[in-house]
Write a structure and sequence with these properties.
This protein is of the alpha+beta class. The protein has one domain (2-57). The protein has one helix spanning 2-22, and strands at 29-31, 36-38, 40-43, 46-49. The strands form two sheets. Strands 1-2 form a two-stranded antiparallel sheet. Strand 1 (29-31) and strand 2 form a beta hairpin. The protein is globular and about 40 Å long.
Length: 58
């Protein structure tokens, strides 16, 4: 039951991150020659935010 609840909460979290990106309230970190944008990294029960160090990202 716990993994299912985690997935439900995680889907809501991903939706919030997408909404803030679409309204330009959050800007991810760009890596590589083709400037791939990374917003967050997730593995099992860990979440790491990756963002450009700007005042509006705080």
């Amino acid at each position: 039951m716990a993994p299912f609840i985690f997935l439900l909460v995680e889907e809501g979290f991903v939706g919030l991150v997408r909404k803030t990106k679409s309204t330009s309230l959050f800007e991810g970190y760009k890596v590589g020659k083709s400037s791939v944008e990374i917003n967050d990294l997730q593995f099992v029960d860990d979440t790491i935010f990756a963002y450009t160090p700007k005042e509006n990202n705080i």
